[in-house]
Structure formats: structure tokens, C-alpha cells
Amino acid sequence: VPELPEVETIRRGLEGSVLLITIDGVRVHGRRSIRRQSPQAFIEACDGRTFTSALRRGKYLALCLDDGAFLVVHLAMSGQLLLIEDPLSPLVAHTHVVFSLGDGRELRFVDPRTFGELFVTTSLAGNGLPAALSALGPDPLIDDLSGALLHAMCSQKNTSLKALLLDQRAIAGIGSLYADEICFRAAVRPDRRTNTLNTKECEVLSGALYEVLGAALARGGSSLADEGYRDLFGQLGSYQGEHCVYGREAHGCRRCGTAIARVRVAGRSAHFCPSCQA
Ligand SMILES: [Zn+2]
Q1: Cα 107 from Cα 97, distance rounded (Å)
Q2: What is the pLDDT of residue 250?
Q3: Which of 129, 100, 137, 108 is nearest to 26 (CA)?
Q4: pTM over 0.85
Q5: Strands 261-265 and 268-272
Q6: What DSSP element (H or E) covers 203?
Q7: How many angstroms separate the alpha carbon of residue 81 from the centre of ligand 1?
Q8: I need a labelling partner for 204 at 20 to 30 A (CA). Which of 35, 64, 90, 265 fits?
Q9: Cα(30)–Cα(230) distance, rounded to whole angstroms?
Q10: Ligand 1 centroid – CA 277 distance (Å)
Q11: Nearest CA-CA partner of 57 in 175, 222, 183, 168
């Protein structure tokens, strides 16, 4: 499931590859990926437009078009956005949307589980981003998620830390994988009640959040065994080799050797070291 490091890796790829490039034809296969407007309205809103900037908030990509509209892409569970050099290369299964680009390449949206979506919107919020994204909380790479801000969030909520980290209205971009890794780095259990975290622990949590997301971004994100995540150019990420807890149930903790435990938190699995995290 792509989270902030993976979506940001794709955003950087788009920024370096499609700006000032014009969309020269759009094909929509099936109806699952275009849900907020008709496929025809979507196609008409994109076709002939030029990409002017590639933004991201949380797990959403927002590609600005030259008429001021945004093409928003949410990869959700299994979406891939792939830049294809050879438009004659066969479409892989579950290719739902294809943008022909003016320079002969194609931008293809592939999504086996079809939870992802694309839409074009001209409705903007005060921050200049699509209004549809205005419910998202602060984004770690755009906003300063300081220890003080995290402490204020934690104090107001009586929930588990993992639930807070997963709440996109509180913090945008973190999913199950990086939530577990951040909790490990911060030496705090994912099922810890947020209102028991003190100022110092929230400072450490802020540092851990930036260290984990930064390290993952430097490695192009995480691709798990299903290889579901690939970047814009089809390359796998390599941060999976550095996971400390996620997917490592019963394996030895990299720091102390204790078996990594898995519990149910906020309706999701949470992995942690019972010795290193309190
Ligand atoms: Zn440990």
C-alpha cells in the first residue's frame, strides 16, 4: 500500500518527467477508477491540457493543469502510475486509464484492486489545493510536525498512537507500515494511549517520524513481496530491507533480539518489540 514515501517518490518522478508535456488523448477502460465524474467529463477535462506542476498531499497526487484544474490521483491499496516510453508496449492487466502524451510516451494507471481513483477538479481550497483534499491533516514534508504539535494532538485524543498516526485528518500520508516503523524508532508501543505521551516522548516521536519517512524516501519507498509498489518508471523501492518491525512478527528485534509481537490496534495489525517499546 503506497504511503507518503512511495507517493512522494512518484511525485518527484512526475515533476522530472511530465511538466510542460501535453495530454494528447485519454482512454478509460471500465468505470471503477473514475467515480466522481463521468468518464466522458474526465476525458474532456484532461485532453489537450498541459501539466504545469506536480503536488502531493498525504497519499494524494495533485497534478496542476494549464487551465488551473487539478488532476488528482489516489493510488489507495494497489494503484500504480507508470510512465511508459513505448506506447506500443502491451497494456498489463488492470490498466484502467491511459494518457497519451504529446511526446509519444504514455502515462498509465494500473490498479488490480480498484480502490484507487482519478478525478479532475476546479474547486480549490484556500491553500490553493483541491478542496477535495482539504480534510487532510498536516503533511510531514509540507508542514512542520513538531513535538509540540504532536503533543497537542496526542493530548486532545484518547486513542491509540497507531490510530492517531493512521488518521489522515490528523496527519496525512502515514499508513500501517510506516506507523509501526515510527513507533519502533520512537520506542513507544503502537497501542499506547496518546494522552499518556509526555512532551519528551512527543519530541522523540517527531524525530522518529522524520527519520523513518526520510530514510524510506531516500530508498525510493518500500516494495513488499507482492511487488505491488513500483515507482513511475516501474522500479521497486528498497527500504523493505530496513524494516525493523513491520512484517517481522516472531523474528528477532534488530536492536535486542526479542521476538517481534503483533497485536490488533485500530482494526489493523501492529508490530512492535515488547522489550524496546513502552
Ligand atoms: Zn527490541
Answers
A1: 8
A2: 96
A3: 100
A4: yes
A5: antiparallel
A6: helix 199-218
A7: 37
A8: 265
A9: 23
A10: 7
A11: 168
Strands of 85-221 (E only): list them.
Answer: 95-101, 106-110, 117-121
- Dist. CA 260 → ligand 1 center (Å): 8
For the record, the C-alpha cell of 205 comes out as: 516521536
Grid coordinates of 142: 509540507
CA atoms within 13 A on the CB side of 133: 30
Among 105, 92, 80, which residue's Cα sits nearest to residue 25? 105
The strand pair at 106-110 and 95-101 is best described as: antiparallel
Catalytic site residues? 2-3, 59, 268
Q: What angle, rounded to 10 degrees, do the helices at 199-218 and 4-17 form?
A: 40
CA 254 to ligand 1 center in whole angstroms: 7
- Separation of first and last alpha carbons in the chain: 27
Q: Is 31 exposed, middle or buried (0-12, 13-18, 19+ CB in 10 A)?
A: exposed
Instruction: Give the pLDDT confidence score for residue 30 in this predicted structure.
Output: 83
User: Which residues are in the CB-under-5-Å shell of ion ligand 1?
Assistant: 253, 255-256, 258, 273, 275-276
Mean pLDDT, contiguous 10-residue spans, the chain (278 residues): 97 98 96 95 98 98 98 97 97 97 98 97 94 97 98 96 98 98 98 98 98 98 92 97 97 98 95 98
The CA 174 to ligand 1 mean position distance, Å, reads 23
d(CA 153, CA 155): 6
Give the CA count within 13 Å in the CB-facing half-sphere of 254. 11
Expressed in angstroms and rounded, the spacing between residue 222 Cα and the centre of ligand 1 is 22
